[in-house]
Amino acid sequence: MELNYLRVFFEVAKDGRFTETAKRLHISQSALSRSVALLEESAGVKLLDRSKQGVKLTSKGAEVFRLCEEIFQTVHRINEVCRGSQEVCEGPLRLAATDHIVNYLLLQPLQNFRKDFPLVVPVVSIGAPDEIIESVLNDDCEFGLSFAKVVTPQIAYEALHAEPMSLVVHPEVWQECKGPNQAATLKKVLNKVGYISSIGALGQKRGSRVLFEIFGEMPRIGFEVSGQEEQKRICLAGGGVAYLSRFMVEREIKNGHLHEVTIEEPHVFKLWLVTRKGKVMSLPGRRFLDRLRAQWM
């Protein structure tokens, strides 16, 4: 089997369109199409379904694509071994994440990484999950970190870590609404100040499901804001009930600035590593991710 044909198939499958791959590789579209056709002919299987919208992997094509990822990553590692000590960990470390992941989970690891590799410059983009996906697909960053998993054909996900959630409210609001039991108190709190929701969460299947599991019904909404940091600030000001990653509010719970409402089964959400399929990571990117994996094992 011709390795060059495999490479062409791999690049086309990543892009999802012959036209995009042809522009990126500066090869004619007809030459790319012919290479993939010859690969399919020699293998005796159909690897891509073609349409006006682009190409999609067949079931057999998906298997071949995963093997191609292993092959070309191995080739890259062989090149690294051959270069040996000549390769220096330097240059930009480009990543994207949501604001609370950067503020609570990445600042210290990035600082420690810079101390050990002073020639590496972290370039951190902060955005919503959809914006993180777009940055990864456009190669504006090497990888992203997000608690939301947005299904996109060209994106690969790896679960790095799992974080529990906490339901919190300002302690004075809780005391003002004190009832005969926790359920009655929480109901009074929600009637008075409402729930602090992410913008658009009520219209999302996952968001609605989570709220139903916590409250048994859709709570009255007091605020809708675009980020968890904003939810936390509003909650600290007494503006409502918030359901936040525990790492964000653990200190405030301990020092009494927030009251944690006990729930039977708090949700645990996975932190996802977001990469573009087939993307070969830079040395700074690989080393930093190896540290995160070791930290959260």
Could you name the key traits of this structure?
7-stranded mixed β-sheet, 11 strands, Arc Repressor Mutant, subunit A, two-stranded antiparallel ribbon, D-Maltodextrin-Binding Protein, domain 2, alpha/beta, 297 residues
Can you describe what's shown?
The protein is of the alpha/beta class. The chain folds into three domains: 3-84, Arc Repressor Mutant, subunit A; 88-161 and 270-295, D-Maltodextrin-Binding Protein, domain 2, CATH 3.40.190.10; 163-268, Periplasmic binding protein-like II (D-Maltodextrin-Binding Protein, domain 2). It has helices at residues 3-15, 18-25, 29-43, 59-83, 99-116, 129-137, 171-176, 182-192, 205-215, 228-236, 246-254, 283-295; strands at residues 48-51, 54-57, 91-97, 120-126, 143-146, 155-169, 195-198, 221-225, 242-245, 259-261, 268-276. The strands form three sheets. Strands 3, 4, 5, 6, 9, 10 and 11 form a seven-stranded mixed beta sheet that branches. A hairpin with a 2-residue loop joins strand 1 (48-51) and strand 2. The longest helix has 25 residues, at 59-83. It is elongated and about 75 Å long. The mean pLDDT is 89.
Give the helices and strands as they follow along the chain. HHHEEHEHEHEEHHEHEHEHEEH
Helicity range: 40-55%
- The shape is elongated
User: How big a fraction of the residues is strand?
Assistant: 15-25%
Taken together, the total number of domains comes to: 3
What is the CATH topology assignment of the largest domain? Answer: D-Maltodextrin-Binding Protein, domain 2
> Can you identify the CATH class of the largest domain?
Alpha Beta
Straight-line distance between termini:
39 Å
The average pLDDT score comes to 89
CATH architecture of the largest domain: 3-Layer(aba) Sandwich
Q: What is the H level of CATH, i.e. the homologous superfamily of the largest domain?
A: Periplasmic binding protein-like II
Largest sheet: 7 strands, mixed
Work out the helix count: 12
What radius of gyration results from the CA coordinates? 24 Å
- Multimeric state of these chains? single chain
Which stretches are poorly predicted, pLDDT < 50 over at least 5 residues? Answer: none
Structural class comes to alpha/beta
Family: Belongs to the LysR transcriptional regulatory family.
Protein name: LysR family transcriptional regulator
InterPro entries: LysR_HTH_N, LysR_subst-bd, WH-like_DNA-bd_sf, WH_DNA-bd_sf
Domain HTH lysR-type: 1-58
